[in-house]
Write a structure and sequence with these properties.
By secondary structure, the protein is mostly helical. The chain is built from eight helices and no strands.
Amino acid sequence: MGALRSSAQLVSYETAAGMALVSALLFTGTLNVKSIVEAQSKEGIWFVMLAPVAFFTYLVASIAETNRAPFDLPEAESELVAGYMTEFSGFRWSLYFLAEYTNMIVVASVATTLFLGGWLRPFAGVHWLNFLDFVPALLVVAVGAYCVVRVPKQPTRVQQLFMLAVAGLCFVVGLVLLAPVLVPIVRPALTEAAKPFYAGIHGGFWFISKSACTFIFHVAAIHDSAVPL
């Protein structure tokens, strides 16, 4: 019964997720990931604005595909006391969670690529919003400053050293993220030659940030829901 229930859930929501992805692919007419993101850059709008229903459908279907609440009934944890945890323990048990969280990262990355502009900055085509290029560096530096403030409040020396190490790492990453903004101003001759490299630095930050937001929604947004399936 558990296998039948899990198979029915997967087939049902995989069909909905596939149709939602097709709507995004129809805007570009290609399966090339780079072309899909470039099409969103050319249009000056993310596909989530053009197909909000498709994005919402894919989001719900991906939550069901990854067995998150309230779609976690195939695991039958409430019926089997602890579900699969009664049969597996230790590292074998952790592999189940690693697989589930890896699956969530994959579906979050797909949603980011097809609907949320991939590695594009928000409002990339609006020139008067170019100040958003400073956001990655400022955000990372703010995290580093917060770690420095928290150092004296740590109870042990090891924790204090760890917080300082994290703060130092944040400051270094902040300088790296600041380079694509400052170098074209200081050394304009290097702008064209290093443009792909600089675009990759900020693009990686925006892609990871968007994927992380979608991932967190999978983990937390509906985790406490009591709505029955």
